[in-house]
């Protein structure tokens, strides 16, 4: 029995060693497999990120082009509107001047002719330049900027 016992122990130890080596080899194979899978996933992730960045850049470019086009259209519309406004400015000014002339004629009919303001002799050194500087000049230029709404 002693011999068979030793034999069993010896074969048992061999079996355990073989199992241990097989287990380690299997574990190493799984680790390599998982490492390759992880590398593949990282590569896929990097490719996806690059693709998304490219899409985002394309969308940004399209948005910028769209906004530039809208801005150009608005500038053109503003330019047209400004030209129309300037074209109507002179007729409006003439209409206002005619209206003021009619009002002045009507006032002269009701109140008599308007006599120019004469300054007393001690103030004759005032000329029109100094009057305009203190706000006593003609109102014609300030009224010509009034437009009908």
UniProtKB/TrEMBL annotation:
<keyword id="KW-0597">Phosphoprotein</keyword>
<dbReference type="InterPro" id="IPR022165">
    <property type="entry name" value="PKK"/>
</dbReference>
<keyword id="KW-0808">Transferase</keyword>
<keyword id="KW-0175">Coiled coil</keyword>
<keyword id="KW-0418">Kinase</keyword>
<protein>
    <submittedName>
        <fullName>Uncharacterized protein</fullName>
    </submittedName>
</protein>
<feature type="coiled-coil region">
    <location>
        <begin position="20"/>
        <end position="72"/>
    </location>
</feature>
<keyword id="KW-0723">Serine/threonine-protein kinase</keyword>
<dbReference type="GO" id="GO:0004674">
    <property type="term" value="F:protein serine/threonine kinase activity"/>
</dbReference>
<dbReference type="InterPro" id="IPR051585">
    <property type="entry name" value="STE20_Ser/Thr_Kinases"/>
</dbReference>
<dbReference type="Pfam" id="PF12474">
    <property type="entry name" value="PKK"/>
</dbReference>
